[in-house]
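ok new one. same drill as before - structure tokens go in, u give me an amino acid for every spot. 475 of them this time. try not to just spam alanines like last time pls lmao
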């Protein structure tokens, strides 16, 4: 097992330097705009210069995150060490625009918003301290006291050895003598794509100024696909009971999932600039060629029209995890163990169901079952070991079973950790496989069979790879 560590470094980042803060307070602002005693940073854009910033790197054997305490304590970016890819949208240029409550705001990485969105602290220095624990945890704690309310926030961004996830611990506290209202939203920017899917088990959504079904609306629009949005849109999903949500790029066959107790963090929001003229304008305003991004946000309340309260002396604490996932053809379930999916592919002899697993930590004796409950038939019963960050693929012929009648259950130590249904290929790589493009699935060393109850996982994978290679030669 590797190790986790946190350390400081000075980074030089190209920056459009705004002018000084306004010396004048706006006493006549209303609603969220009442930021006194803060004043606005609104003289933009300024000249582009290379500016040195304090940075704290948090990393383990799988991931490396960079936190910038001088820019609100946000995560600037996070790299997947396996292939060097970016988990979030990392803006290589600090290019502020008039979006935040106090003016200057930047699009990059993950920002922490309290007591309201695009907080006044987002473009200001915050307190920070490196954290190390005896169990191997390493990270950085960032935070501030909001002067408009007197409440404090502390966020610890950290990692553990052997776990492919970024852990975020949140602690809010009202140290005043009055009850205060607030919301907290953790806002992650992710690279946009026409093959991007928003992942949520919500059954309804507040979007386009109304409540509608999710993902397919009453008028047939698929709110789960980024390609469906023409104009800038907030989409809050509601009604789900699962702890995970996020997004998945089917063109790249990778995504990012957030996991937190749904009771502690019920808010799940997607934001996109859409595909119209305004999207192009804001992409140019906020970056120098890094392209469009979307936002996935996790909140303490269901929507940003809702608030909750902290009484005098009351704290609020919870923990969430950001999981980079890949090789799954989508996400059907996720949790503290990793992410899973099942895809039903057509074939000449009947449907074939592939189960994909991407664990974030090593796990032994993980049992996968595929059952047709309408017929009382078991199509697969396989026990395997899962390696952190690796993709495991299992396969079963549906035979006389219909995929819509089947369910997949994943068990660890006799307890179900995931349960979901297979679905047809959606878009991207999964759809290409369904069309017979010959795209191969991950290599056989991605999972190791411990039981022959339903046939060897290794053998299944090897047979599928051989079939894919034959198909490629024929093409």
């Amino acid at each position: 097992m590797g190790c986790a560590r946190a350390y400081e470094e000075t980074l030089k980042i190209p920056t459009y330097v705004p002018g000084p803060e306004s010396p004048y307070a706006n006493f006549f602002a209303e609603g969220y705009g009442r930021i006194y005693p803060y004043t606005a940073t609104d003289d933009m854009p300024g000249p582009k210069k290379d500016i040195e910033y304090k940075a704290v790197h948090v990393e383990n054997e799988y991931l490396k995150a960079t936190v910038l305490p001088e820019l609100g304590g946000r995560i600037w970016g996070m790299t997947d060490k396996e292939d060097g890819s970016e988990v979030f949208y990392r803006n290589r240029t600090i290019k502020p625009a008039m979006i935040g409550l106090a003016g200057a705001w930047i699009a990059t990485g993950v920002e922490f918003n309290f007591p309201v969105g695009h907080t006044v602290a987002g473009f200001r220095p915050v307190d920070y301290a490196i954290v190390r624990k005896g169990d191997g945890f390493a990270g950085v704690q960032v935070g501030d006291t909001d002067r408009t309310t007197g409440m404090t926030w502390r966020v610890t961004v950290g990692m553990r050895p052997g776990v492919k996830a970024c852990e975020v611990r949140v602690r809010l506290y009202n140290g005043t003598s009055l009850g205060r209202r607030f919301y907290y939203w953790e806002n992650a920017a992710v690279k946009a794509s026409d093959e991007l899917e928003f992942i949520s088990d919500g059954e309804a959504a507040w979007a386009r100024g109304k409540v509608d079904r999710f993902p397919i609306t009453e008028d047939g629009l698929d709110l789960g696909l980024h390609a469906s949005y023409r104009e800038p849109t907030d989409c809050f999903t509601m009604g789900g009971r699962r702890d995970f949500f996020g997004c998945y790029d089917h063109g790249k066959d990778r995504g990012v999932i957030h996991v937190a107790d749904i009771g502690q963090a019920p808010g799940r929001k997607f934001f996109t600039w859409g595909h119209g003229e305004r999207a192009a304008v804001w992409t140019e305003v906020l970056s120098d060629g890094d392209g469009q991004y979307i936002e996935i946000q996790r909140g303490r309340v269901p929507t940003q029209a809702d608030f909750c309260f902290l009484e005098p002396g009351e704290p609020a604490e919870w923990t969430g995890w950001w999981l980079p996932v890949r090789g799954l053809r989508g996400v059907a379930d996720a949790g503290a163990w990793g992410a899973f999916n099942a895809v039903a592919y057509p074939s000449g002899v009947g449907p074939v169901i592939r189960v994909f697993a991407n664990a974030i930590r090593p796990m032994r004796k993980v049992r996968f079952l595929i059952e047709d409950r309408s017929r009382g038939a078991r199509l697969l019963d396989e026990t395997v070991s899962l390696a952190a960050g690796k993709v495991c693929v299992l396969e079963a012929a549906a035979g006389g079973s219909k995929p819509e009648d089947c369910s997949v259950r994943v068990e660890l130590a006799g307890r179900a950790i995931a349960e979901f249904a297979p679905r047809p290929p959606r878009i991207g790589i999964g759809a290409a496989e369904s069309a017979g493009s010959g795209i191969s699935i991950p290599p056989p060393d991605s999972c190791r069979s411990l039981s022959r109850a339903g046939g060897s996982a290794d053998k299944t994978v090897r047979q599928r790879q051989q079939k894919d290679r034959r198909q490629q030669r024929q093409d």
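The two ends are 43 Å apart (CA to CA). and btw Residues 193 and 457 are 33 Å apart (CA to CA).
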